[in-house]
Amino acid sequence: MTTTPDAATDHPAGPSTTRAAPRLAHVDALRGFALLGILVVNIGYLASAYHGTGIEDPGFDTPLDAAVRWLVAVFFEAKFFLLFSFLFGYSFTLQLDSAARSGAAFAPRFLRRLAGLFVLGALHAVLLFPGDILTTYAVLGLVLLAARRLRPRTAVRSAVVLFAVTAAAYVLLALAVHAAGGGGADPGAAAGAERAAEALRGGPASVIGAHLDQLPDVAFLLVFFQAPAALAAFLLGLAAGRGRVLGDLARHRRTLVRLQWAGFTVGLLGGLVYAHASLVSPGGAYQILALGIDVVTAPLLAAAYAATVLRLAVGRHGERVTAALGPVGSVTLTGYLAQSLVCALLFTGYGAALVGRVAPPGVLAMALALFAAQAAGARWWLRRYRYGPLEWLLRAWTTLTLPPLRRP
Q: How confident is the model at residue 109 (pLDDT cuts 50, 70, 90)?
């Protein structure tokens, strides 16, 4: 499952009277693009209880259904949470700089921010979507706080080691499963998916119960797959922030081009292997091996996406790109949780109870329509207000003040 951190961290953690560093429109555009990818992945888990079980919903088996599943698996799954993790680490350096300018104690404010993220994430996981990662980010934020004095080169090396060790662990696990002759899809997965779908179509108590039942499996996935990769991306973001990489893209144009070449070749090949294992041969040693391959190739594809969006955002059509993606990228905490709320109203017993009743192409169309509505809503909101509603709430808790919300 792919999820998003608190993207509001571009707003400094210092007092509201402190002059903040200006926001970078191209970074907001990148964050908005990442929010779209998060939605495309997460809505699949909300729309079908079969998603992630190793078997596909037998009610949707047309070639178009299969094509959409391949599209999402190759280009979206396990890529976009890396972008947000990178931006979390990058924004962390902005908060450090803001605290240094204001003379405020950084650690207490950041710890309050992490506590706020943890509470929001726990409520999100229980009420709306078990695939939340805010709680994981809150815990990993403690590691980032401890590592805040790392030199950029050391941070990059540490990230590479994390990716490599995680991939090696998957390879060793795949070899062990192969030697034991185990693997294959769980024979009880279909019955379990049907029970989960029925529970999700029930009343609020039934929906919350279904979420609680899913949490142990989700926690396992977060701890052993997403958390190490997210921490590595945090460190890459920390290094980029220390080096002011995103503040002067012209100086790094060659690097961006190289990232595009690497990501759209090696990264895309890794995505194809990951999708093939997930959709054609799930549950065995091959899928575990594919996860190990994905750990080292998904960051390349995510980097290629980032390089492409950043180059577009500062290029000839940059104003259009930033106008389309920038506003929603400025309020991604609100946007992310609003996505889960709308999807819960659509697919669970909170509302229309459509879980398992919409084919993958329809689910993808719903994601695109929802994101378009969010982009329009964000533009309207930011003409009148400084922060998104949840960004303002988290900022108020972080600073223990009531920052002005309306624009003058």
A: very high
Taking a C-beta distance cutoff of 8 angstroms, is the pair 264, 301 a contact?
yes
Beta strands in 50-195 (DSSP E): none
Q: Express as a percent the part of the chain with pLDDT over 70.
A: 93
CA dist 49 → 46, 96, 132, 198, 367 (Å):
7, 42, 16, 9, 17
Are 350 and 344 a contacting pair, CB within 8 Å?
yes
Residues 197-213 as b/e (b if ≥16 CB within 10 A, e otherwise) read: bbbbbeeeeebbebbee
Residue type, 276: H
Give how far the C-alpha of residue 144 lies from the chain's centroid of Cα atoms, to the nearest Å. 17
Two tokens at 194? 């049907």
Q: How far is CA 367 from the centre of its chain?
A: 15
Reported as type and span, the H/E element at residue 321 is helix 318-330
Which two tokens mark 23?
A: 């926001």
Q: Give strand pairing partners of 406.
A: 385
User: Diameter of the chain by CA atoms?
Assistant: 67
For 225-268, how does the pLDDT look when each residue is reduced to its tens digit (9 = 90+)? 899 999 999 999 999 999 989 988 889 999 999 999 999 999 99
Contact of 135 with 121, CB cutoff 8 Å: yes
- Model confidence band, residue 12 (pLDDT cutoffs 50, 70, 90): very low
First-residue to last-residue Cα distance in the chain: 40
d(CA 132, CA 135): 7
Alpha-carbon torsion angle 345, 189, 210, 354, nearest 10: 20
What digits encode the pLDDT tens for the residues 346-368? 999 999 999 999 999 999 999 99
Pair of tokens at residue 26: 């191209």
Distance CA 282, CA 272 (A): 14
pLDDT at 287 over 60: yes
CA distance 345 to 144: 35
Q: Is 406 helix (H, G, I), strand (E, B) or coil?
A: strand
pLDDT in tens, 139-161: 999 999 999 999 999 999 999 99
Of 142, 165, 304, 136, the closest CA to residue 230 belongs to 136
pTM score, two decimals?
0.92
Contact 218, 136 (CB under 8 A): no
Cα(98)–Cα(11) distance, integer angstroms:
9
